[in-house]
Design brief:
This protein has 505 residues and is mainly beta. 8% of the residues lie in helices and 38% in strands. It starts with 16 loop residues before the first helix and ends with a strand. The N terminus is likely disordered.
């Protein structure tokens, strides 16, 4: 990885007002540490932090500045979700990457045109009616203001359409339904009461391409730690599917499906329960990676058979790419990390360079007898894996990921991994300081080739503090955008999204 040398012009952060307000909110010791981290950054890395500035304005306009030619058969809407502001409803700056209010962006593509709309999800927190103890930022007032209080549902992690409904997801609570055309918040959805208790509902559901079912899960800790798994049929009817115990209280963020199994990989990211419950430590600061506890693969048969659990050495991961059945074995592709450096970075994301964070694209094979083998498929530091939606739970050849190429802070590459030939092609941001969000695959209608379609991403443009929609040919992303749609403002760095094709006529 190549970085430009650190800049000596550090004092003026007026072009990053959110960062300046955050620094001013810290006590003297924390501020000194944060400013030291900033001082170690290259100039391009410092400029890239504009992706973490808030976007308070809600827009709705036809994009006029389009370069290249948008394919005629690319029609539908790219929905994106992520924090739009990192401040609570009192205006106080927040510390953790996961703490911001969810803001949905919609890029509607039709007949070579693009319309952009963004809107905050009207959660209780956004409307100022919830508490202010967040995942990584404690409420003011010491432990008495935090004891026994849970973070508010920020609806900020993913946005998924299923059975005619669009849901903004946050894994610690129930989904918020959003109107797909206006992005108006329609309310919290509990699927006619089937989503009970706290209503924990992961931000990473899996859609089965053959049945149209959407599988999802929630982590529950009472009476003992367990996964509660849900199945929603193609008509939108949700039912409790299975429950399975966890080996310990753990953060479980994602899972995968095959045609025979639901596949969970449990990493020992374990909350420090007593200090968190007593309000002495935030949830984010209290999450610890405990490799001594090991990891587990949990395999839940889709036909209702016996649940399998396979123990394994500790693996730190957040996102599974895909999984599939292979002659009695199960293949699971995962983004794995060397250590817990990422946990430290996201807890202080505004000022933490990610140079020390290292990940790889890893394949696990679980045999019918319970043996697990591990293979590195790419050593690029990467995240946010995507693939053709029709390959969900099926054998696949290609994966698309964000990669770190020249930046030390965010992901500035979009890389195609050919898992059969073990080759990689990458499009790197042409302007230093620019970064990309997750590449979403939009299939070309009526074709069967796995890589026949487009990759849709949002590029943050650091020098001009704006963003643009980038459309890449999924067959050859390295040749650069076939079209871009330039916005008049920036979109803050987000998490996940999905593409909803236009209804056929």
């Amino acid at each position: 990885m190549v970085h430009s040398s650190p800049s000596t012009e550090r004092a003026d952060l007026s072009y990053l007002p959110g960062l300046r307000a955050y620094l001013d909110s810290l006590d003297a010791s924390e501020r000194a540490q944060a400013e030291s981290r900033l001082a170690s950054m290259a100039a391009t890395d410092l400029r890239s932090l504009g992706a973490s500035e808030a976007q308070h304005t809600e827009y709705d306009y036809a994009v006029e500045a389009i370069e290249g030619e948008i394919p005629e058969d690319l029609a539908g809407t790219l929905f994106r979700n992520g924090p739009g502001r990192w401040e609570d409803h009192t205006g106080r700056p927040l510390h953790h990457l996961f703490d911001g209010d969810g803001m949905i962006s919609a890029f509607t593509i039709e007949c070579g045109t693009v319309r952009y709309r963004n809107r905050y999800v009207r959660t209780q927190h956004f409307q100022g009616t919830s508490g202010t103890r967040h995942l990584g930022t404690e409420a003011t007032g010491g432990w008495l203001a935090n004891i026994g209080r849970l973070p508010p549902n920020l609806a900020n992690t993913n946005v998924v359409e299923h059975a005619g409904h669009l849901y903004a997801l946050w894994e610690g609570g129930p989904p918020h339904e959003v109107d797909p055309d206006t992005l108006e918040t329609l309310g919290i959805r509990r699927f006619r009461g089937e989503l009970r208790w706290l209503g924990s509902y992961s931000a990473h559901p899996c859609l089965c391409p053959s049945s149209g079912d959407m599988f999802n899960f929630g982590v529950e800790f009472i009476p003992t730690p367990h996964l509660r798994v849900y199945r929603t049929d193609r008509r939108g009817k949700l039912r409790h599917y299975r429950s399975v115990s966890l080996p310990y209280v753990a953060m479980v963020h994602d899972f995968a499906i095959t045609e025979r199994y639901l596949v969970f990989m449990v990493s020992p990211i374990i909350p420090d329960g007593i200090p968190i419950a007593l309000g002495l430590r935030s949830f984010g600061d209290g999450m610890r990676y405990r490799p001594d506890r090991g990891s587990s693969f949990i395999l839940i048969p889709r036909d209702g058979g016996e649940i399998r659990r396979i123990e394994h050495d500790a693996v730190l991961q957040f996102h599974l790419s895909n999984a599939y059945d292979d002659r009695g074995d199960i293949i699971v592709d995962v983004i794995t990390y060397d250590d817990d450096a990422l946990l430290q970075c996201i807890a202080k994301f505004r000022t933490s360079p990610m140079d020390a964070v290292s990940s790889e694209f890893t394949r696990f094979r679980i045999t019918a007898g319970g043996r697990v083998t591990r293979e590195q498929l790419s050593d690029r530091t990467c995240e946010f894996p995507r693939h053709h939606p029709d390959r969900e739970g099926r054998p696949h050849r290609y994966a698309y990921v964000n990669t770190k190429e020249n930046l030390g802070t965010l992901y500035d590459g979009i890389t195609k991994l050919d898992l059969a030939d073990n080759t990689e092609t990458c499009y790197v941001a042409e302007t230093p300081g620019n970064s990309f969000c997750e590449p979403v695959f939009a299939p070309r209608p009526g074709t069967t080739d796995e890589d026949d379609g487009w990759l849709l991403s949002v590029e943050y443009q650091a020098e001009q503090h704006s963003s643009r929609l980038v459309i890449l040919d999924a067959k050859d992303p390295e040749r650069g955008p076939i079209a871009t749609a330039q916005l008049t403002q920036h979109v803050p760095q987000g998490f996940h999204g999905s593409f909803s094709p236009a209804a056929s006529t």
